[in-house]
Amino acid sequence: MRILLLASAFNSLTQRVFVELRDRGHPVAVELALGDDERLTAAVRRHGPDLVIAPMLTTAVPEAVWSAYCCLIVHPGPPGDRGPSSLDRAVQEGRGRWGVTVLQAVAEMDAGPVWASAGFGVPPDVGKSDLYRGELADAALRAVLLAVERFASGTYTPLTPPEHTWQPYLRQEERRIDWHHDPTDTVLRKLRAADSQPGVLDAFLGGEWYLHGGRPEHRLTGPPGELLATRHGAICRATTDGAVWIPELRPRRRPGESATFKLPATTALGTSLPTAAEKGRGELREQPPTSRTRNPAGGSHEDITYEEHGTVGHLRFRFPGGAMSTGQCRRLLDAYRHARTRPTDVVVLGGRRDFFSNGIHLNVIEAAPDPAAESLANIEAIDDLVEEILTTTDRLVIAALPGNAAAGGAMLALAADEVWCREGAVLNPHYRLMGLYGSEYWTYTLPRRVGPAAAERLTRDALPVGAHAARTLGLVDRVLGCGPGDFTAEVTRMADRLARSAGLSTRLGAKKAARERDEAVRPLRAHRAAELERMRAVFDDPSAPYHALRSAFVRKRRPDGTPEHLRTDFPNGG
Fold it and tell me: Model pTM?
């Protein structure tokens, strides 16, 4: 069937539905719904789809569309649930189970006939955005595929949804933290329900900030609401019965100001962050590093950890939004170098769930005094990490992708000997949409895996690739058919088996010989120099599109229309 996706943005769920439907042989086109009903209606008519699906839509479908075409809406709530903050409320209320409904668009929002639904468990310690890209996305895909199958049959009659009261938008008044009364569990639920957007509005240190993300701290205590410590850009604030780490802040936008954006908390606070002397009570301190070999249970905020299981070292990292700043890349490089000193045969890189990496930290770059210089520093730092991985010849390196990877983060994974990814992961192995040529030694690793023709097509077309298609192309070696919560255990089991395999020493010898042959043909430094020459030319040119594209991206400006790379019609037109 010819399926048209309507979406407010080409976000993670829209991309997941896009790649999965295409992998199943459906011609799929995309149109962004940007508030112009006449323009959107004309675009739908031009496509003439058999079916319209809206994976993520924040506005109503025009009547001229839903009255002429079957339009299926993916709603992030179980049948009967209605309202724009369904998932936010589920997380904030501590629901243990939630669901996704695929319903038909009608005049009344979220009230149409139900074509399919799927439920999922809600882990108690997972934020909304992680849940959205993980358990919810898995359930949404099951429901969408079932709805498509039912529609294609021509015999299915959708069900009338159960009655349910409309739940309004979850306003900041309901999200607000009462630091003098809310216990840690309540604070964390509020933070996690707003972790990506919109954040939790709070006032402290003479300013108003949106708080993004939250993790518990069980050792530090202090007066409720007090800033206790900083670590790796995060701030620690006391609750009535403990404390929480908040990794990112976004200043509240004042009238007349341009849109604000998230930054590491200490970067956002800048000179507003009190020194120990200014604080006057206790010490606002940068927490010291923990053991390099393990992360103590319930300990201080850690975004990089290392632990060993037998002869397998697991280097795990977890950065908000998957972005990696210059400092984060350097700390990860230090941790990787430490891992190389350990008596292991296999090193596994990647987090327990959600993003693997999305490459350089555009928000930090945008906020830097000299964005061009910070762009180059960030690229050099991630290049150093990739080079260290590529030149590791005494053990196997596995990139384990629990979730999505994009741009330099996707190329970081390709530096490993094998790439294992969860079947729900989506890869975007390209840079073009940010106006960049790219680095991370991609001119070596990408053609090495997929061939020159496919490498050129992937970077030119700039379209997402699903896990199974990535395996067919050669981007991925193994696809793990498990849920987000089971990924770590499955990777641990597979890595242990690999470390015990009889042919490991032979494989390591072949790896070392291949690296020496490749180096003789074209040294890694030549790849790096050529890539950085192209990148520097962009960074140092104030008129280069990269700078405007970066600013629009971090400030979440809506495009004027459906981006060029998505403007594809069905074969032979509508």
Answer: 0.94
